[in-house]
Amino acid sequence: MVKERKSVRIQITNLVRQMDALEKTEITVPGVFYRDEGNIYLQYEEQQVEGKIRSVLKVSETELLLLRNGAVNMRLHFFKDKSRSTASVESGAGKFLFESELVGYSEAFSQDAAQGEVAFQYDLLSAGTYVGSYEVTMRIEEDPNEFN
């Protein structure tokens, strides 16, 4: 099956709660949306203070996988039927392994267009100790300025 790739705009909202602090960031980035073997994929690149980060999000019936490579390397792998899994983050400060606990998850994608939304909330734990809570929302729309 040939994967039809669509140019999209992705609005990403992150809410991070650590101790008594709440930080909200919002960015909009260009990306690519495609379906393959029943899975949905988003690819995008963002510029952070640390440098460029290339990301791939895979959404399937059973799992959610977020891979980030570049200035920060991260692997978040959630299974929809299991609340806890492992996560790894690597940056200039070194590589850290965490437990991630999926707290909430929702998705809604159009069947005939490259648009939709995926949202997930998770907690990170280090050696069983709560590190923080993270909420990620990605709104996807076909980019009307791109020709496919």
The CATH H-level homologous superfamily: Calycin beta-barrel core domain
Number of strands: 10
Largest sheet: 10 strands, antiparallel, barrel
Tally of separate helices: 0
Task: Write a brief caption for the model.
It holds the Pfam family DUF1934. By secondary structure, this protein is mainly beta.
Fold blueprint:
Blueprint: E1 6-18, E2 21-36, E3 39-48, E4 51-59, E5 63-70, E6 73-79, E7 84-91, E8 94-109, E9 116-126, E10 129-142
Antiparallel strand pairs: 1-2, 1-10, 2-3, 3-4, 4-5, 5-6, 6-7, 7-8, 8-9, 9-10
Description:
This protein has 148 residues and is mainly beta. The protein has one domain: Beta Barrel (Lipocalin), CATH 2.40.128. Helix content is 0%, strand content 76%. The chain has strands at 6-18, 21-36, 39-48, 51-59, 63-70, 73-79, 84-91, 94-109, 116-126, 129-142. It is globular and about 45 Å long. The model has no long low-confidence stretch (mean pLDDT 90).
List keywords for this structure.
0% helix, Lipocalin, 148 residues, globular
